[in-house]
């Protein structure tokens, strides 16, 4: 856990950071985001004391960081920066082993650790350990920078625009790789970016800074649902409802208990559902060949029969896919529902356009702190 308490920095007469208080729970990622010059880098560098705060202090696991020797503090904090800063005349293996060497590990342990780290950042150890930084692409160098920062397995990581210097596709790959890694490692991370999309994607918590002051710190969901003021709204952009689509996976919004009827017997089974008092629920129909179709129960009214409204359910997605992807597939195929694969032995779910619309709307309309269920 990292806790900043009233941390601030003056450079002469100029106040770069006023008095910032923020708590990052153990194993979570806090993304600091804001326009250029708002004090992100200064705040981050105060945490590992590359910059001495003018006021306030930082607690790492409830211990005042001033009580630790700077060398020890820095060993426990991995630091990744945009231009990586690899030593050009040292091999990848030598670069990665910088901290373990300082910590006095033996050669065998270091060699093992280097290979393990290269695998973690998804680089082939055999192929890369003896190369020099100039022989790698920008994205690969960034991976090595990450491996080096993680070498001594620090519980805390500071990452200052780590993926900003690479092309958009490489950036996306790095982000995804890092999210996979973090799912396993659960480090406590402060991640700086000026890109709100990256913040939403990477953060458990987003801290928006402006002119050296914290404007809002909240989960991505809460930030998008309830921007605190015009500055935050403007920073998020006009498409917050679309950004919300990125935050949720299909299994968080899908129906898991939609009735599955057989095509040959669907009229009768539908009448039974209506008599039981079911309303407005998606109903899946399966024919003899296993083909799936669907309709919404509240479409059956008056003269409307199932055959008037039933339509194919032709797209199947993974439970981990985003609802944005589900939406994209529906638009591409002019469908209004997708099937979501069940885990082994489990029934599939169904995600409808109506369900998504409803969910996003309720999030946009929710009050601060209010939880929206499906
Ligand atoms: N060593 C320094 N001396 C004077 N001013 C500085 C120094 N470092 C940063 N600043 C100023 O502090 C402000 C915040 O800088 P920084 O934290 O690097 O911003 P960010 O990372 O958000 O772009 C900027 O106006 C910058 O010019
Ligand atoms: Mg910066």
Oligomeric assembly: single chain
Listed once per kind, the bound small molecules are:
adenosine-5'-diphosphate, magnesium ion
Biggest sheet features: 6 strands, mixed
Count every beta strand, where a strand is a DSSP E run of 2 or more residues. Answer: 17
Shape: elongated
Spans of at least 5 consecutive residues whose pLDDT stays below 50 are none
Structural classification: alpha/beta
Give descriptors for this structure.
6-stranded mixed β-sheet, Rossmann fold, binds magnesium ion, 4-stranded antiparallel β-sheet, alpha/beta, 374 residues, 17 helices, binds adenosine-5'-diphosphate, CBS-domain
Structure description:
With 374 residues, the chain is α/β, with parallel strands linked by helices. It has 2 domains: 2-239, 3-Layer(aba) Sandwich (Rossmann fold), CATH 3.40.50.300; 252-364, CBS-domain (Roll). 38% of the residues lie in helices and 23% in strands. The chain contains 17 helices and 17 strands. It has helices at residues 40-47, 70-75, 92-96, 98-102, 107-120, 125-128, 138-150, 168-185, 196-202, 220-225, 230-236, 240-247, 250-253, 266-275, 306-309, 323-333, 353-365, and strands at residues 2-11, 14-24, 29-33, 55-60, 63-64, 77-81, 156-160, 188-193, 205-210, 213-218, 260-262, 282-286, 292-296, 311-312, 316-317, 337-340, 349-352. A 6-stranded mixed β-sheet has the order 6-7-8-3-9-10, with helices on both faces. Strands 2-1-4-5 form a 4-stranded antiparallel β-sheet, with helices on one face. A 4-stranded mixed β-sheet has the order 11-12-13-14, with helices on one face. β16 and β17 (349-352) form a beta hairpin. α12 (240-247) crosses α17. The longest helix is centred in the middle third of the chain and has 18 residues, at 168-185. It is elongated. The mean pLDDT is 93. The site of adenosine-5'-diphosphate has 10 residues, from β2 and α1.
């Amino acid at each position: 856990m990292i806790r900043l308490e009233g941390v601030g920095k003056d450079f002469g007469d100029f106040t770069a950071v006023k008095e910032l208080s923020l708590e990052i729970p153990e194993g979570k990622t806090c993304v600091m985001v804001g326009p250029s010059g708002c004090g992100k880098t200064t705040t981050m560098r105060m945490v590992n004391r590359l910059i001495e705060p003018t006021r306030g202090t930082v607690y790492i696991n409830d211990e005042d960081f001033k009580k630790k020797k700077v060398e020890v503090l820095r060993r426990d904090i991995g630091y990744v920066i945009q231009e990586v800063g690899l030593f050009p005349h040292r091999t990848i293996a030598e670069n990665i082993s910088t901290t373990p060497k300082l910590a006095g590990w033996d050669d065998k342990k270091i060699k093992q650790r280097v290979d393990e780290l290269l695998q973690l950042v998804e680089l082939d150890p055999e192929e890369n350990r003896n190369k020099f930084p100039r022989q790698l692409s920008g994205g690969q160098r960034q991976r090595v920078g990450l491996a080096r920062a993680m070498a001594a397995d620090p519980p805390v990581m500071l990452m200052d625009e780590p993926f900003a210097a690479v092309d958009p596709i490489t950036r996306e790959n790095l982000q995804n790789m890092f999210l996979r890694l973090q799912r396993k490692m659960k480090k406590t991370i402060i991640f700086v970016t000026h890109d709100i999309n990256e913040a939403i994607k990477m953060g458990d918590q987003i801290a928006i800074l402006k002119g050296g002051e914290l404007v809002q710190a909240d989960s991505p969901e809460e930030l998008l649902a309830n921007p605190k003021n015009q500055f935050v709204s403007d920073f998020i952009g006009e498409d917050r409802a679309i950004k919300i689509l990125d935050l949720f996976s299909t299994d968080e919004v899908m129906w898991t208990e939609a009735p599955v009827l057989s095509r040959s017997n669907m009229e009768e089974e539908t009448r039974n559902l209506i008599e039981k008092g079911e309303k407005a629920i998606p109903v899946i129909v399966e024919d003899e060949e296993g083909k799936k179709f669907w309709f919404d129960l509240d479409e059956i009214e008056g003269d409307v029969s199932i055959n008037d409204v039933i339509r194919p359910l032709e797209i199947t997605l993974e439970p981990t896919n985003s609802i944005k992807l589900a939406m994209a597939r529906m638009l591409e195929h002019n469908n209004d529902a997708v099937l979501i694969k069940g885990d082994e032995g489990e029934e599939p779910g169904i995600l409808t356009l109506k369900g998504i619309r409803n969910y996003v709307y309720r999030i946009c309309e929710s009050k601060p702190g209010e939880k929206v269920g499906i």
